[in-house]
Queue: 2 jobs
Job 1
Amino acid sequence: MVGHERQFHLYLALAMPDHIHLLLRPLQKENGTYFELGAIMKGIKGASARQINILLQREGALWERDSYDRMVRDEEEFQEKVQYILTNPLRKGLATKIGEYPFVLDLRGETETLPV
């Protein structure tokens, strides 16, 4: 999120009352290396915390310092993570079926992602 260079491809985002799930893939830089996940998360947390604090007219830390990252190695594991994320509101009693929970951004079928 530094500058305007897109650093990751976002597949799925789901906001729960006390945490957020993101399914994303770091993009490759021109030099062949990939953007670092830690830097991506720092950018997401920083930008979102600033905006949320403005909206709530508050200051201070918003997110926990650490993230719980998982490496997805194949299509099967990708689909497992999708199901875990989409069923999280059901497990917490916030919805009764997939698709009912409103705080989901599902870009898995998109050819273009948001410029993040």
Note: Residues 37-56 form the longest helix (20 residues).
Job 2
Amino acid sequence: MITILQTELLKLRRTIVQWMILSVILIPIVFNLIYVMLSGLLEDSAFNWNTSLVFVNFLLTVIIAPIFYAGIASFIFSREYREGTAEAHFTYPHSRASFFTGKVFIIFLFILTSCLLIFSVNLIICLLFADIPPPPNFIKSEILGSLRIAFTQCGLVCITILASIAFRNIVAGILTAVIGCTTSIAMLLSSLGDWQLLNPYFFSLVVTDLTNYKLKCIFSGVVSITVIGVLAIIYALHLYKNNDVANK
């Protein structure tokens, strides 16, 4: 498996994925720095820790994370179809499922590390500009919030992977994420009720602030995004192994 991971990482050298990874990390950091600096100039009150990272979480859950992660996953899984190298995997002494697992592991690992890295850097920025220490349990709650974002984005990216493999192109995966994000924002503006949490894209949108929802509805949202993600990745593996190459 280590060899497969090294192979998949080497494939990403000198590709657009490197710039996408850099963008998904730097964009929220830069915007948060600007936001914190402007807040300090425009407000005479003390630094508000309770709202300091809300702007970053908003950028991540609404725009940056779903679209950029979808783009990265779509590129990784659609590249071999564009380049016509899908059947070449049968010349390696590893199963096709092993390459699939390696790609998914790399994507999940990137999502987790990027969410934690974004949180860490933005926390440092807030500490530099804050004139009061953070409230008790603030850092713990924000770490848990970052982990929740990572969990939901892993669930959503499974849907993207399925779309990319099913249609064999990068556009399908990104378009799936765009449609999902659009419906989630529309549902948020419509205030249709707690059942909205069953939509995995809506659940990922509000995952950092679930105080207005009932516990059973939150549990239903967790189950929904988990089940949909697992089913999507299982079917994506089936397509990747059996339905996309000539020699089976």
Note: The CA atoms of residues 41 and 226 lie 43 Å apart.
